[in-house]
Amino acid sequence: MRRFKTLPLRSRLALLVAAAVAFAVAAVSVTCWFIVQGKLYGELNNQLQSSATRPQGRNISNTIQNCTSTPNAPSGQAPPDAGGFRAQFESYLQVVTADGQVCVASISPGKIEIAGGDTALAKNPVQGHGTFRDGSDTKGNPVRVLTVPLTIANLDGTTTLVKNAATMYAVPLKGTNATLNELALVLLLVGGIGVVGAGAAGLWVARAGLRPVDELTDAVEHVARTEDLTIRIPVDEESDDEIARLSRSFNSMTASLASSREVQQQLIADAGHELRTPLTSLRTNIELLTRSEEIGRPIPPADRKALLASVTAQMTELAALIGDLQTLSRSDAGHTADRVEVVSLQDTAEAALRRARLRGPELTITADLEPWFVRAEPSALERAIVNILDNAVKFSPAGGTIDVRLKDGELTVRDHGPGIPGDELPHVFDRFWRSPDARALPGSGLGLSIVARTVQQCGGEVTLSPADGGGTIAAVRLPGAPTAPPDTVCAAPRRGGVARAAGGPGGGGAGG
Asked: What is the CATH number of the domain that holds 270?
């Protein structure tokens, strides 16, 4: 069994097919042989039965007397009066007495060997009862034997049962056995050819059926060797079998991996580009401070204060960018789904509004919030709402108004800023994308990407669209219900640090 498991799959399939066919052929052959044997033996039994139904003697007393006086007469030597014992065909015919004496009642090929059942039937004869058996003659030739009670035909047409005597009929089995032997040989040859053919056919079918698996194996080995995720396996679009489904799954997997790698590489490239600016500024400012200390020429206090403020701002921007990257990486890995809870969107929006009012004290922020409960990760949801509000605060003019509304699971934030041009709307949720007007403002370009990813993981959608009269409307639609599920404890909004973790001042924005 262990050696069988080490064979290639196609060899195992071929062997299994051959074994199944061999079992079927053997079962059919054995069944066929026994059926033919039964038919042939039935014909022999009918022949013997036909011979036994003939009247068995007109002068039976002389026959019995001759059998008694001359027991075991030689084959072919009939008594003076055979008493009407004649066979319909070339066969054995003899009379056996209860004590085992034999009298050959007609010209026969030889004598039949006596068995215990023959003498038992002679001792206790039953009218119309007979027994069939396989036996042999005195020369060892196989014969089919029928033993019946000895009866005589009377002149009035009746029959009389003779006690202590039985008649034995037999026919040779040589021809029947020869036929059965020939049949067994033919079945063996045909079955052997069938098994070999089935094995060859099974191997061919296995090779043809596993060809797509071989192609899949080659593709996997190629990917493992070259890391080339662009390879695809040809699939018949009309086919829906297991191989086609496996090929489609492999193609889908490699496409997803290729897309993930492309996004990862793009993220790394964009992150490197975005990190280069604050790092370069930090390096320049720190070098100025270091050179001032080395040459002993102090920087004027005003300039030194400006340099330190610039260093602090760049450090804050760098920390915000790293925090946003960590948030995106956790979202891509699906970690937030492990902390999903029932959250009150109304309470979360109110917590985000408190932070937004601290960032834009000169703005008027109105809110009309209705109860709505969703399933989300509390801190991620609050972060997303804070990012949307930060955008509105950043682009609203001094003394402007921001309208926030929550109704039927849709949260809308409308500002009265310059709005977003139509050609820029398709890019606002891209990572690190920032509109030309926002590049001079603080931000990492990841705020709206975080919003889109968070809302998507909650099963909702977010859109930005121009508002009538100027400004932008940000709409977030989340599935949920106006009441919390029974026996559910809603997560409270997290306090402290959420707005700052969203990217510091201006953590969101149109690309900000």
From this structure: 1.10.287.130
Last residue of a domain, one of 172, 194, 226: 172
Nearest Cα neighbor of 84 from 50, 111, 59, 121 is: 59
Q: Are 339 and 376 in contact (CB under 8 A)?
A: no
Same domain for 440 and 292, yes or no, is no
Cα separation, 181 vs 159, in Å, equals: 42
Residues spanned by the domain of 476: 337-501
Strands (E), 179-278: none
Position of tokens 């040859």?
A: 189
Cα distances from 84 to residues 55, 80, 81, 449, 473, in angstroms, run 7, 11, 8, 117, 124
CA-based diameter of the chain, in Å? 161
Name the residue among 327, 344, 345, 348 with its Cα closest to residue 336.
327
Could you give the angle at which helices 174-209 and 211-226 cross, rounded to 10 degrees?
30
- For residue 113, what is the domain's CATH number? 3.30.450
* Residues present in the chain in total: 512
Q: Which residues pair with 170 in a beta bridge?
A: 92, 145
Give the pLDDT confidence score for residue 478 in this predicted structure: 92
Alpha carbons 174 and 143: distance in angstroms, whole number: 8
Number of domains in the chain: 4
- Determine the Cα–Cα distance for residues 206 and 134; give it in Å rounded to an integer: 49
Q: What is the CATH number of the domain that holds 383?
A: 3.30.565.10
| Torsion angle of C-alpha atoms 87, 93, 98, 101, degrees rounded to 10 | 140
Same domain, residue pair 9 and 76 = no
Summarised one tens digit per residue, pLDDT across range 40-53 is 999 999 888 887 76
- Measured CA to CA, the distance from residue 480 to residue 410 in angstroms comes to 10
Q: What is the model's pTM? A: 0.45
Domain stops at, among 285, 310, 328: 328
One domain for residues 32 and 94: no
Residues 458, 478: contact at Cβ < 8 Å? yes
Other CB atoms within 10 Å distance of the CB of residue 233: 18
User: For the chain, first and last CA: distance in Å?
Assistant: 66
Give 250-289 pLDDT, tens digit per residue: 888 888 888 878 777 766 766 666 677 678 878 888 888 8
